[in-house]
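Protocol step 6 of 9: fold each sequence in the batch and record its structure tokens directly after the sequence line. For illustration, a two-sequence batch is reproduced in full.

Sequence one:
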Amino acid sequence: MVVDIKWALVLDGIGESCTNILNLLGIQTICRPNIIREYLLNDLYAYDAIVVRPDTLITKEILAAAFRLKIVALASPGCGQIDMEAASNRGISVINAPNSTVISACELICGLLLAVAKHMRPARTAFSKGLWSNGSFKGNELKDRTVAIIGCGRVGKGVASRMSGFGMKVVGFDPLLSVTHNNGSCTMIKDINEIWPIADYIVLLGDYVLYSMIGFDPFATQEQCEQYFISKMTPEEQPAFQQWLDINYNFFVDFINADVLGRCKTGVKIINVGRGGLINERDLLDALNSGQVGGAAIDVFEGCQKDPVTLSLIEHPSVIATPHIATSTTDVPVHAAKEISEQIVNLVKPGTYSTMLSELNKIYD
């Protein structure tokens, strides 16, 4: 697949790491960090590709004005605010940067797990009040303890490799991955119910609906599937897969609840950087107060800060709460700009970079 791209419009201050790579191949770039909608509509006719951030609204009207446009490049994971149907109807390919947030997310998860293991929250709180008794906060070593990773995609794979470096036993569960897949340092478990009694730490990385869409993308290449240890979906499997989604959708809500927590080890520790709705917050709060759960680190919440249950979790002495910062680093935009620009270059001159194409809609064969 070769795409003729001569001019690219780079919006939202995406930066030099993008334009430098494009210019190196001879793609002319125009940067408009603060362009207003009227000017965007007037200027789009001249460009073969546009590069945007996820909060940029790319509507049917905008796509209609861009009669030369071949590529909308999103410098972020996900789909952003792009009218995918309109892009597909116009024959415009939408690509994104799925790997740009992986390292930042992995590092936060590992940091939260360590902080919970060493009781850093209660120790810091007591220390700030003048209490110097280090004997009151005895944490645990991670070596030889078991961490269960629920959702074993890109981030899960990274967490597994990092925590195995601490000598942890790493097990994983993902309904879309076979237990025979070699997922790096992670031993895949077939039945989720086998995990609860053995896990000292449970890491939640996302609801299965999202993993399903990524893991079984029928447009993913075989190479992409093999890199992330994912089964390649055949056209014949799609109807059964959709039925599986329809049947199990409610399974993702309150996935961690009183029943599940009661089957876990006493003192189990929970780390949630996936979705707020995965955990029943009231059940988690009760389990923390009873001692069934020994600690938690939560980066995503179901309720808002004014919700009394959510607020109680945030203020709980055994909880480390963060305001959805898993991917909030200065490095993520740099990674995203680099990844997306290398994909554009590969569309013009295939094989220039090892970066794989991440199409969100199937346009080119």
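Sequence two, same batch, same settings:
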Amino acid sequence: MNSVCIYFIINILYLWITLSNSMTRQQLKNSGKIMKKSCMPKNDVTEEQVGEIENGKFIEDRNVMCYISCVYSMSQVVKNNKLNYEAVIKQVDVMFPAEMRDAVKAAAANCKDVGKKYKDICEASYWTAKCMYDFDPKNFVFP
């Protein structure tokens, strides 16, 4: 699947979500599969390396870090090669189920400065995702 097609699918999902207000947790996880299928080969990672990120298994490997960055980029929370807190909050408001929003926003607020410690977007994404998981594993969702 080429990147134009994937971008189109993500935008269609975004519009659908916007019109329907939010997704269930399962719909959120299912939509992440598109990003996962696109980002895995781009970053030469296996299911074994990235399949348990949502459960707290963060392998400290450059390709895994860049996979996480790819997912964040496709989620439109990376602006000018940096994680953008306001974009994260906007995506949470649009995509996440109402019962998860406050918890995910709290994790994002807690971790918003983690990425600033790193010049590299892959490292910034990895450590931010890990921070968000550590802050609230129950409400952490990642493809």
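Proceed to step 7 once all outputs are recorded. Observation for sequence two: The CA atoms of residues 41 and 67 lie 9 Å apart.
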